[in-house]
Design brief:
Blueprint lengths: L7 E5 L4 H12 L3 E6 L2 H13 L3 E6 L5 H15 L4 E4 L19 H29 L4 E5 L12 H21 L5 E7 L6 H14 L3 H9 L10 H12 L10 E4 L8
Parallel strand pairs: 1-2, 1-4, 2-3, 4-5, 5-6, 6-7
Helix pairs in contact: 1-8, 3-4, 4-5
């Protein structure tokens, strides 16, 4: 059964691995999927993959940090479909992009604010633009945000990204409260670290070199935090997003949904 049959979905920052997995799952569940990113080549390839699998997809170059580009693109989607059912923003940031991992006593104000402006700021821009069009078209859709488990972890030297993750969760609850009267669900997905992604595998490899540890030992230490014997996959994150955007997922509104198979180090 296709739970998102004939739904119109837009995925921002779809060049990322998580957003790409979400777009694939939306399509597999029957949605018409628009994939956007600053990297047009990457989303063109994703759209081709979705269409090769029998789905419907269209790619576009949109910067999820530029409000005018976001609004203009959503206006086009609504003009073509007369509705907007699902929006997901998969924007993320690398530590290097944010100036590394300086100690809080050493970080500049700009380094602290950079992830807040990029990660939380982008979610603010795409969510409110989506809500405006959903209200205008009476779509009663679902807006999905993305946060990180840093919001409930205790790690040093990540003040900015941690603060941004917490802020996204608070923003989710506020927006769900404001737009619920219009039938709009707002939910935040919080995946754990996914071993198959380039970001996590690269971070583990770099940490192993930094501390002079065998790579296998560091991976084993991380996996020891799993409650189950299984680890989270990109496919599972995508399937969870598709479920939350479906009619069955209505029970999860204003919630922060952990997607990690259970971790001992996450509150």
């Amino acid at each position: 059964m296709k739970n998102l049959k004939d739904k119109v979905a837009v995925v921002f920052a779809a060049s990322g691995e998580i957003a790409g997995a979400v777009a694939r799952s939306f399509s597999q569940q029957g949605a018409k999927v628009y994939v956007t990113a600053r990297n047009l080549d990457a989303v063109n390839e994703l759209a081709r993959e979705i269409k090769a699998g029998g789905g419907w997809a269209e790619a576009a170059k949109v910067d999820a940090m530029v409000e005018a580009e976001i609004s203009d693109f959503l206006e086009k989607v609504v003009a073509d479909n007369q509705r907007l059912d699902i929006v997901f923003n998969g924007i993320g940031a690398d530590y290097n992009e944010m100036g590394g991992r300086p100690a809080t006593t050493e970080a500049t104000f700009e380094q602290f604010m950079a992830p807040i402006q990029k990660i939380c700021g982008s979610q603010f821009l795409t969510s409110r633009a989506a809500a405006r069009y959903m209200i205008q078209t009476h779509s009663e859709g679902t807006i999905l945000l993305l946060t990180a488990a840093l919001s409930r972890s205790k790690l040093s030297n990540v003040a900015g990204i941690t603060a941004a993750s917490v802020a996204i969760e608070g923003l989710t609850r506020v927006m769900a409260t404001e737009w619920g009267k219009n039938g709009i669900k707002v939910i935040c997905i919080c995946p754990g670290a996914i071993m198959e992604t380039k970001r996590i595998s690269g971070w583990i490899e770099a940490a192993a070199r930094q501390y002079g540890m065998p790579l296998e030992q560091l991976i084993a230490q991380y996996k020891s935090l799993d409650i189950l014997k299984t680890s989270l996959t990109l496919k599972q994150v995508g399937e969870t997003a598709a479920f939350l955007a479906s009619e069955t997922g209505v029970a999860f509104n204003s919630h922060i949904v952990d997607v990690d198979c259970g971790k001992l180090n996450i509150l």
